[in-house]
Design goal:
Helix content is 31%, strand content 18%. By secondary structure, it is an alpha/beta fold. Helix 7 (212-228) runs parallel beside helix 10.
């Protein structure tokens, strides 16, 4: 009997080892074989855009030599010669806990990440808007509010030095804040974090709107006035997207499904199959779409948007570290865009997305909106072109157009 038990135990161990080997082979194949980008028809020749808006989120680990940041800097410098240019950083501008106070061990590192993004605007005739993300708050309560105010003050100091950068909405305020761009675009900025966290409104200071209800009413007024007036294309910007097929929307790659502890420490390959996705999809975190607060936020914005057919043209977010384009009509917008791959990557599903690229494609990227005088709007999705490099850290790459679509006109 003892011999039989030893044989059974050894057999079970061999099966377990074989199973782990198969899983590792599957994950290696998935990691090493990028999902192919879609074949696109030739990019239209489109000179004469009067305004160009760049969308890049979650750039809070980027450095000046990060290929996508260097490429963005060159692109902004070139396009700003003949068009009004705005770069929108869609939150999580500093990982992991926002900008700590001077004297804190992480302050210099935090500031360096922010400087890499600010420097994109130095010496060029363009502006940047920094939208707050959940990592920019870093903490709950008054300490988190201090982090977000410190970042806003740091950006304001850069503005006083002559760089055209602004933090919107005002720190700790829900917005909306409004920025007209050219004659055809109206950018609207929302602090979506306040929908998802406990916030003491008495600490917010002199916010124009001091509740989420007032913020929604102001958004409704902006869309109403735009419909009655010059009819610009409205693009609503926030850190959290209304739709995503990344991890915050419930999609996980094999590594997260079987070895979730590697999120805490890379070498920690301890198999805990399926527990992590089930936990994330159970609504435990307000940062995920499965949480009641996140769902309520989506319902509230969808209710406002549905009152104004054709507005907004797009709702834009980051948060998930990938690039996604959706038909947005289920939320009352023409399109939903996710551009959160400025310095980190996560897996993404395709499902009914018009376009999706993430960790499987192994490139960072951003989106670009071009607004033309005739009212047409062109979306381009650009990646850093480093996937074929042997040493990607030392490879400058070449910007690659991976997807384009007319969002209006043409």
């Amino acid at each position: 009997m003892e011999v039989l038990n030893r044989l059974l135990t050894k057999g079970c161990q061999n099966v377990q080892r074989a199973t782990h080997a198969i899983l590792l082979l599957c994950m290696t194949a998935t990691a090493c074989a990028p999902r192919p980008f879609p074949d696109m028809s030739p990019f239209p020749e489109t000179p004469g855009a009067e305004a160009v808006v760049y969308l890049i989120g979650d750039a809070g680990l980027a450095t000046p030599t990060t290929p996508i940041i260097a490429q963005l800097r060159r692109d902004v410098a070139q396009r700003s010669r003949d068009a009004e240019v705005v770069v929108v950083y869609l939150g999580d501008n500093i990982y992991e806990k926002g900008l700590h106070e001077p004297g804190h061990p992480d302050h210099a590192k935090d500031a360096a990440y922010l400087d890499a993004q600010i420097d994109v605007l130095r010496g060029v005739d363009a502006k940047a808007i920094f939208v707050p993300g959940n990592h920019d708050w870093g903490y709950g309560g008054a300490r988190g509010l201090a982090q977000i105010r410190r970042q806003a003050a740091y950006i304001a100091e850069a503005a006083r030095e002559g760089v055209d950068v602004t933090f919107l909405p005002a720190a700790g305020c829900p917005g909306p804040a409004v920025l007209p761009v050219g004659r055809r675009a109206l950018l609207v900025f929302i602090e979506s974090n306040l929908w998802l966290r406990d916030h003491d409104w008495s600490e917010s200071g002199s916010c124009e709107n001091t509740s989420l209800e007032e913020s929604l009413a102001s958004l409704r007024g902006i869309l109403q006035q735009n419909g009655d007036g010059d009819g610009r294309h409205v693009v609503v910007m926030a850190h959290h997207p209304l739709k995503t097929y990344g991890p915050h929307g419930g999609y996980f790659g094999l590594k997260d499904q079987f070895f979730p502890l590697t999120n805490l420490w890379g070498p920690l390959y301890i198999p805990i199959p399926f527990v992590y996705p089930i936990w994330r999809n159970s609504g435990t975190s307000s940062k995920d779409m499965s949480h009641g607060r996140y769902q309520r936020m989506g319902d509230q914005f969808a209710a406002v948007f549905s009152e104004f057919p054709g507005q907004p043209l797009a709702h834009v977010g980051g948060h998930d570290h990938n690039l996604q384009v959706f038909d947005g009509r289920e939320y009352g917008a023409d399109y939903i865009l996710v551009s959160g791959i400025g310095s980190k990557q996560s897996n993404v599903g395709l499902d009914d997305a018009l376009f999706a690229a993430g960790r499987q494609n192994r490139e960072l990227g951003y989106m670009r909106l071009e607004f033309f005088r005739d009212g047409s709007v062109l979306l381009s999705v650009v990646t850093d072109g480093t996937v074929s490099c042997d040493d990607r850290a030392a490879c400058p790459g070449e910007p690659q157009l991976r997807y384009w679509r007319w969002l209006a006109g043409r």
